[in-house]
Write a structure and sequence with these properties.
GO terms for molecular function: ATP binding; DNA binding. Keywords: ATP-binding, Nucleotide-binding. This is Conjugal transfer protein TraS. This protein has two domains: 134 residues, no CATH class; 275 residues, P-loop containing nucleotide triphosphate hydrolases (Rossmann fold, 3-Layer(aba) Sandwich). The chain is of the alpha/beta class. The strands form two sheets. Strands 6-5-14-13-12-7-11-10-8-9 form a ten-stranded mixed sheet, with helices on one face. A four-stranded antiparallel sheet has the order 1-2-4-3. The protein is built from 13 helices and 14 strands. The termini are far apart. The structure holds adenosine-5'-diphosphate (ADP) and magnesium ion (MG).
Length: 451
């Protein structure tokens, strides 16, 4: 008997320790079973308490009366599926007549407390079916990406979402993106993650880093072109615009619209070209974009206009030529001068890290999702890397990128250095790499002969 008590005590202590130090392991070992039991046992009473039940239908009442049975109680949404996941539970509900998805969405916080979960979000799958995604613990506290991730050349995983799903950066559906955030909020780490993922894909990376290149130069082996000051950036952007024009010429030459060419084979962007002709897609990463838009002198003002015009042209026309923009900055609003808001309107994908004021958050979400603005201001300074990101459905969610060290990013870039394409138009901006020749041993000094 005492043996059994000791074993029980040990299990309880282990569970407590795991829950405290390693919530992810706790979830996989104890948490998931307890949560499934809790949901199964409490389901009806919780739904009733949350006002998610409907009175029995007329024919049920009539049937009960005819058979002289007790009056049936109110009915909760049907559970269509209960699926445990790595981070929580997914519950699929079939709504009863008279209920709507908004009822469920409005009750998410109540459900979270009632089922003892960390987070609950809901979304409509199709009419009459709502999915509740519950997380068992704070998945953004220590981000661990799932082991199995989908990767294609233009779609890479970059962060974990609050509901445990993976946040992807998909260049085919969202060609250009803007990432805002106060200083030290995690923008560069986010960008570093992106570079680490893209390094393994057959894409060309081009970088503009006006912080004298401290963020991107260590990763130079995987970059086809880099600029570390505004003057070089202006020339680099002009070169990119000429490349874009050349790609359009190529697409036009390939179009050959005659009656016998099948519709599906008419090329309108690089992905329609046959593989052997297809130019390599380019991702242009810009860190601290405001540096490019600031000026003191007349000369610098001219340079600024040139840069903003080139960026706006790339944003407007770049997608079909396979040129994608990834712009990071602290603020990106009209106070940076003319052309900025027009450029911003072209940047579809929005991510806001912690910002200091509402107007900065408005630059990311004011024009698309006003409730995301509030969420971006509420991010705590203690959790750098947490951000609010718009998703493809027009909604938004909180995300956090894994904490990728510069060392890890450098290793990934060096490992895939041979994937770096040579772009003839940008050859002048190819970063000069320190030669990898082994450092010669310092000559051993021979002790002077004692006379
Ligand atoms: N996703 C993250 N997870 C954990 N820590 C992070 C994350 N992103 C950033 N940090 C921390 O915040 C610090 C500042 O991040 P950084 O990307 O350099 O900010 P920014 O470029 O916005 O000024 C980093 O040194 C890192 O310690
Ligand atoms: Mg930075």
């Amino acid at each position: 008997m005492t043996g059994f008590t000791v074993a029980l005590l040990l299990v309880a202590v282990t569970a407590g320790l795991l829950r405290w130090r390693r919530p992810a392991w706790y979830w996989l070992t104890f948490g998931v079973t307890l949560a499934v039991l809790r949901v199964a046992v409490r389901y009806r009473s919780v739904m009733d308490a949350c006002g998610l039940t409907v009175p029995p239908s007329r024919w049920r009442l009539a049937l009960a009366r005819a058979a002289n049975r007790p009056v049936p109680g109110p009915r909760a949404p049907r559970i269509l599926r209960l699926r445990p996941t790595r981070t929580g539970l997914v519950l699929r509900l079939g709504l009863r007549p008279g209920q709507d998805a908004f009822d469920v969405a409005a009750s998410c916080d109540r459900l979270r407390h009632s089922f003892g979960m960390y987070g609950v979000t809901s979304r409509e799958l199709r009419s009459g079916v709502v999915e509740l995604r519950m997380t068992g613990y704070d998945v953004l506290k220590r981000v661990q990406m799932p082991a199995k991730l989908e990767r294609t050349p233009t779609r890479v995983p970059v962060a974990l979402r609050e509901d445990g799903a993976v946040h992807y950066r998909d260049y085919r559906t969202v060609p250009h993106a803007l990432t805002l955030g106060a200083t030290k909020s995690g923008k560069s780490v986010y960008q570093r993650n992106l570079v680490t993922e893209l390094a393994a894909q057959p894409v060309a990376l081009v970088g503009i880093d006006c912080k004298q290149g401290v963020e991107l130069y260590p990763l130079a082996r995987r970059f086809s072109a880099l600029a570390d000051n505004a003057d070089t950036a202006a020339e680099l952007l002009d070169a990119l615009v000429s490349r874009m024009e050349a790609v359009y010429q190529l697409i036009r030459a390939e179009q050959r619209i005659t009656a016998d060419v099948p519709d599906a084979e008419i090329a309108a962007d690089i992905w329609d070209l046959p593989e052997h002709l297809r130019p390599v897609p380019i991702v242009l990463l810009v860190d601290e974009v405001a540096e490019l838009a600031l000026f003191n002198t007349r000369e610098e003002e001219k340079r600024r206009d040139r840069i903003i015009t080139a960026l706006a042209r790339l944003a407007q026309l770049g997608r079909a030529a396979g040129i994608y923009l990834e712009i990071c900055g602290q603020r990106f609003g009209s106070e940076l001068g003319k052309g900025i808001t027009m450029l911003r309107a072209q940047l579809t994908g929005r991510t806001a890290h912690r910002v200091n004021d509402e107007s900065s958050a408005n630059m990311a979400f004011g024009d698309i999702a006003p409730d995301a603005v509030l969420a971006a201001i509420q991010i705590s300074p203690d959790t750098p890397g947490v951000a609010v990101a718009g998703d493809s459905t027009g909604g938004w969610s909180r995300i956090r990128a894994p904490h990728t060290s510069l060392r890890k990013a450098v290793d990934a870039c060096n490992r895939h250095a041979e994937l770096t394409p040579e772009l003839p138009e940008l050859a002048a901006f190819r970063p000069v790499l320190p030669s990898l020749a082994p450092v010669p041993e310092p000559a051993t000094e021979t002790a002077p002969a004692v006379a």
